[in-house]
């Protein structure tokens, strides 16, 4: 298959991957058209026959086609260079998709989706509780689901439990709703001493990676969130953002309101044009540091409980998330 044909095939797979349900040729053509990629239904049927033959898709009758496990793997590995900057683009898309209303405490927020073995649940829950109690989580709410339950698009598999933790990108959505645009600079490892942030030890720019930085740091065993929760000294996940200078005071007030609503996570907001924890900022901008939403799962991984993590997993109603004191009993 030549390069042009392969890209068309992958465009179709990508549409199916982003759908919550099987799609027929008409719906696939409509989705492609919205993305600025014109493809006739006849052409789509041709490529679907190829993907069926290769085991990348499967027919579910009149409802259309859906991706197979092999199809998902193919889509993940194909054209990795094209995906550089994907994390930054997804963050912007989810920010725009939020409809959370801070005053009412209702609406959708961005969450991370994580899994671990049910057999290790007792240990994992205790570790997560300590992280939340230490204030090293993004917000104070989460959702926990057992086998057969659904969190966003994920159906929890037998022998597993799933966790939805608030993603730090939710801060961007709250600020945007108040007219404050946010620029995502990087995700990194933040050194804590005496419970206070000191400096970034490692950073990964959002626009130069195909994976979320904290996912990488967790699997690289580079965090010490459990230690930070127990002693105040350790290395946690955090991100660095910038906002306009004129919005700094409004952002501080919003940060306090988010904290009271259980959505807090802003650690620091800097001074206009001044470095924040040794990180320089542009003129007319203010630095802002936000805790990583996957910090509880980093602590779970640190104690030997394997986790599967998808940062910026989906949007969930804030009302579906409960205080950690209720969930992590």
From TrEMBL:
Signal peptide positions on this chain: none
Domain NrpR regulatory: 84-322
Ribonuclease R winged-helix domain mapped to chain residues: 11-75
Origin superkingdom: Bacteria
PANTHER family: GLOBAL NITROGEN REGULATOR NRPR (PTHR41964:SF1)
Name of the protein in question: DUF128 domain-containing protein
Origin species: Desulfarculus baarsii (strain ATCC 33931 / DSM 2075 / LMG 7858 / VKM B-1802 / 2st14)
Lineage: Bacteria, Pseudomonadati, Thermodesulfobacteriota, Desulfarculia, Desulfarculales
């Amino acid at each position: 298959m030549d390069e042009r044909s392969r890209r068309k095939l992958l465009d179709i797979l990508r549409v199916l991957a982003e759908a919550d349900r099987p799609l027929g040729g008409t719906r696939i053509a409509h989705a492609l058209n919205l993305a600025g990629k014109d493809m006739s239904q006849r052409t789509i049927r041709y490529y679907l026959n190829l993907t069926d033959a290769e085991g990348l898709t499967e027919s579910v009758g009149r409802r259309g086609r859906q991706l197979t496990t092999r199809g998902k793997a193919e889509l993940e590995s194909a054209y990795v260079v094209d995906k550089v900057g994907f994390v930054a683009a997804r963050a912007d898309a989810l920010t725009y998709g939020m409809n959370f209303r801070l005053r009412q405490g209702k609406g959708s927020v961005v969450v991370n989706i994580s899994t671990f073995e049910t057999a290790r649940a007792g240990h994992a829950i205790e570790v997560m509780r300590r992280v939340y109690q230490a204030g090293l989580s993004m917000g104070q709410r989460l959702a926990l689901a057992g086998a057969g339950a659904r969190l966003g698009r994920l159906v929890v598999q037998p022998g597993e439990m799933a966790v939805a933790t608030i993603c730090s990108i939710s801060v961007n959505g709250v600020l945007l709703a108040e007219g404050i645009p946010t620029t995502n600079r990087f995700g990194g490892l933040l050194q804590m001493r005496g419970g206070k942030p000191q400096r970034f030890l490692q950073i990964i720019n959002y626009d130069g990676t195909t994976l979320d930085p904290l996912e990488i740091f967790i699997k690289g065993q580079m965090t010490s969130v459990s230690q930070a929760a127990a002693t105040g000294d350790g290395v946690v996940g955090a991100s660095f953002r910038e906002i306009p200078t004129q919005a700094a005071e409004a952002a501080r007030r919003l940060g306090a309101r988010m904290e009271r609503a259980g959505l807090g996570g802003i650690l620091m907001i800097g001074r206009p044009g001044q470095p924040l924890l040794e990180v320089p900022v542009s003129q007319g901008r203010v630095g802002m540091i936000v805790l990583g939403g996957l910090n509880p799962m980093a602590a779970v991984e640190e104690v030997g409980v394997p986790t599967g993590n998808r940062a910026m997993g989906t949007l969930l109603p804030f009302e579906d998330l409960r205080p950690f004191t209720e969930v992590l009993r």
